[in-house]
Design a protein that fits this description.
41% of the residues lie in helices and 17% in strands. With 686 residues, the chain is of the alpha+beta class. Among the domains are: 183 residues, Rossmann fold (3-Layer(aba) Sandwich), CATH 3.40.50; 150 residues, Isoleucyl-tRNA Synthetase, Domain 1, CATH 1.10.730; 102 residues, Nucleic acid-binding proteins (OB fold (Dihydrolipoamide Acetyltransferase, E2P)), CATH 2.40.50.140. The longest helix is centred in the middle third of the chain and has 30 residues. The chain binds one RNA strand of 75 nucleotides through helix 6, helix 7, helix 9, helix 12 and helix 14.
Length: 686
RNA sequence: UGUGAGGUAGAGCAGUGGUAGCUCGUCGGGCUCAUAACCCGAAGGUCAGAGGUUCGAAUCCUCUCCUCGCUACCA
């Protein structure tokens, strides 16, 4: 740590088109805040930067749909998001927004510098355009029928049903999601950043220089670099965003992923005139806290931008977390499967520390993790209440009972090895916590904090002052020593848990009547935090048990809020009937009834089943794309209709001798077309 | 399709070649200052599966299975 004289900590800018949920907290805001509070307690020079990301197409679209301006949307969500985060004690030094003037200027200047240095490629391409809504459409905003699986709700970049990567050109009957118009191709010019030019730099800086990064982050970056980078457009056609600062750039804005990370710089500028100390001096440690969805932008693209522009420090680490699930299911804002932060602070006022604790304890640090209300209750009741709060409470009660509510003296003459052990255990825990925090292992650090409370309970149990008190006069010295140490340990707990649960630490300070300055990290491990003879306040509970009904209420609320997916997307009308054919055309088809006698999945193909079909005279091997609708076991013995004279075709190396007829509904569900009753295999269909 | 991360006791995790560990939960005991809280103890695991290297494998190699992500114009 000696290498660095100041810290610049950023947390991903939440996108201002909706509120934040606990997945956001667990993924980046909470770990960032814990890290920052720890650094502040160490009296480090640190700035904690955040803000809302307010540009981009989704905001524009949301505004169009709601009939308001994009500014209305971002104003609304900036307010909700910043209040939610501040309610949870996320202690940004500044929480800015990318629609601010200072950011527009900073981002535009950044772009201009790169442009002037000749670092962009100018390319003209054809993009899809919605002539009704008068906007260019990202692939995502075009829907149509998937050519592979027939899903009528496939997006222009991917079909979510069969997982195929698509381009809008592949879609059958593409439509704009905005206006339903048929997209047309239109020429447009953009500025591309040739990321491939930065490969040598990235390989050396990241792959060679930062092997200590988390597995998930490092692996992801290595995967990108190994497969080779390519040019990426840094501008978009849109009215909502930062205008491209060039003369011939009407209707062009910066790509949100170009402007958003520059938001960290703009916000620092807004915060302090000394912003350059944090961004441009080599002895600054820059750390980006993000969720795993942001890895490439923060580890590949933004560092390349910083390098290209020149004069900026590069991130020292990017400790991205994985995703948090809720009650076993992915968080989904569109289905409203989420625990919203603004709901939590309303339903559990003054109990932010419980959620901070639970989210840190179950944070998805190495893999996706699950949040459940049952777990929330259990951790509160058995860890925070039973171990932590209870230790502090019983200490306070005993001090009031046997020591008149004042810090008892410590008598050196009756000190024993158990007392010494307590101190050495405490120092060891402190070291473990520091080590874990400095290496972004927040779960581990927090577990060790609880362990300190556990040490207290073991100590208290072993000394049993309530037993000593049966002969209080002769044992007073022993009682004093025990409770003196328990009080010092309580004060230590306040320091050690402060980064995680600042509200709780404050409560302890209040009870012990000490000033907040005691919470400075260098005081941890000291046994001189409260002074002999000093009176304490009345005991108070730091945490109380949460009853089943309160948890039940939350679970019900979660399920009640769940929005059922709209059945089969915007159910398109049945496909129009094709043009007439003559009987002879039809007669060319040889359709037979067959019985499936064997079925197995085709390896390395999600959708294919290999079938053996008995058509009386022979048995045919047929590969059919029905694996998503039928399992092999359930179809053996079923009768089907087979196109028997279809030219054989190899699929996945298997010769498919025919095709099974399927009926498909508007939602894309496939069912067999088969005889009404069992019919002899080989029967002709006409 | 390729690729990244992950798969260890009922749950959540640690463990990179040498007797499988921690927390919660469960069960038994102790204590009574404390919020049915605390303390002590026990049960519970063919370390996803198969094969290989090794005196020895959760750990190294190969293959397979499962979960989640990425695959470049969603942010």
């Amino acid at each position: 740590m000696a290498k660095f004289n100041r810290y610049l900590i950023t947390a991903a800018l939440p996108y201002a088109n909706g509120p934040v949920h606990i997945g956001h907290l667990a993924g980046c805001y909470l770990p960032a805040d814990i890290y920052v509070r720890y650094l502040r307690a160490k009296k480090a020079d640190v700035k904690f930067i955040g803000g809302t990301d307010e540009h981009g197409v989704p905001i524009l679209i949301k505004a169009l749909k709601e009939g308001v301006t994009p500014q209305d949307i971002v104003d609304k969500y900036h307010k909700i998001i910043s209040e939610s985060l501040s309610d949870m004690g996320i202690s940004f030094d500044i929480f800015s927004r990318t629609t601010k003037q200072i950011h527009h200027e900073t981002a535009a200047a950044f772009f201009k510098k790169m442009y002037d240095d000749g670092l962009f490629e100018e390319k003209e391409t054809e993009q899809f355009y919605d002539e009704v809504a008068k906007v260019f459409l990202a692939d995502r905003y075009i829907v149509g029928t998937c050519p592979k699986c027939g899903n009528p709700g496939a997006y222009g970049d991917q079909c979510e049903r069969c997982g195929t990567s698509l381009s809008p050109d592949d879609l059958i009957s593409p439509r704009s999601t905005l206006s339903d118009a048929v997209p047309v191709k239109k020429k447009t010019k953009h500025w591309y950043m040739p990321l491939q030019n930065y490969e040598p730099f990235l390989k050396e800086w990241l792959l060679e220089g930062h092997k200590e990064w988390k597995n998930n982050v490092y692996g992801q970056c290595k995967s990108w670099l190994d497969s080779g980078l390519q040019s990426r457009a840094m501008t978009r056609d849109s009215e909502w965003g930062i205008k491209v600062p060039l003369p011939d750039a009407e209707g062009k804005v910066l790509y949100v992923w170009f402007d958003a990370p520059i938001g960290y710089i703009s916000a620092t500028k807004e915060l302090t005139p000394h912003w350059e100390d944090y961004w441009c001096k080599e002895d600054t440690k820059l750390v980006h806290f993000i969720g795993k969805d942001n890895i490439v932008f923060h580890c590949i693209i933004f560092p390349s931008m910083l390098k290209a522009h020149g004069g900026f420090v590069l991130p020292e680490n990017v400790p991205a977390n994985e995703f948090l699930n809720i009650e076993g299911d992915k968080i989904s804002t569109s289905r409203n499967w989420a625990v919203w932060v603004h709901d939590y602070v309303k339903d559990f006022p003054g109990q932010e520390d419980i959620m901070r604790y639970v989210l840190c304890a179950t944070a998805p640090e190495t893999k996706d993790n699950d949040f459940s209300w049952k777990d929330f209750q259990q951790r509160n009741n058995s860890e925070l209440t039973a171990i932590y709060s209870n230790f502090v409470y019983r200490t306070m009660v005993l001090v009031h009972k046997y020591c008149n509510g004042k810090v008892p003296p410590f008598h050196m003459d009756v000190k024993d090895e158990v007392d010494d052990k307590l101190l050495s255990d405490l120092l060891e825990s402190k070291k473990k916590i520091e080590d874990a925090l400095e290496n972004y292992r927040f779960r581990e650090a927090l577990a060790e904090v609880i362990n300190v409370a556990r040490l207290g309970n073991v100590f208290l149990q072993g000394k049993a002052p309530w037993t000593l008190a049966k002969m209080q006069e002769e044992n007073q010295k022993l009682i004093d020593n025990c409770l003196h140490l328990c009080l010092q340990l309580t004060a230590n707990l306040a320091i050690l848990s402060n980064p995680f649960m600042p509200g709780t630490s404050k409560k302890i300070c209040h009870m012990l009547k000490v000033v907040d300055r005691m919470l400075e990290w260098e005081n941890a491990g000291s046994l001189k935090l409260v002074n002999t003879g000093y009176p304490m306040r009345e005991p108070q509970y730091l945490f109380t048990n949460i009853e089943d009904d309160k948890i039940q209420e939350q679970v019900e609320k979660l399920h009640a809020g769940l929005v059922k997916p709209v059945e089969a997307a915007p159910a398109p009308e049945a496909a129009p009937v094709k043009e007439d054919i003559q009987y002879d055309d039809f007669a060319k088809l040889d359709l037979r009834v067959g019985t499936i006698i064997e079925a197995e999945k085709v390896k390395k193909a999600d959708k294919l089943l290999k079938l053996l079909v008995d058509i009386g005279t022979e048995k045919r091997t047929v590969v059919s794309g029905i694996a998503l609708h039928y399992s092999p076991e359930e179809i053996i013995g079923k009768q089907v209709t087979l196109v028997a004279n279809l030219a054989p075709r190899k699929m996945k190396g298997i010769d498919s001798q025919g095709m099974i007829l399927m009926a498909e509904d508007a939602g894309g569900k496939l069912v067999f077309v088969n005889p009404d009753v069992q019919t002899a295999p080989g029967s002709e269909v006409r």
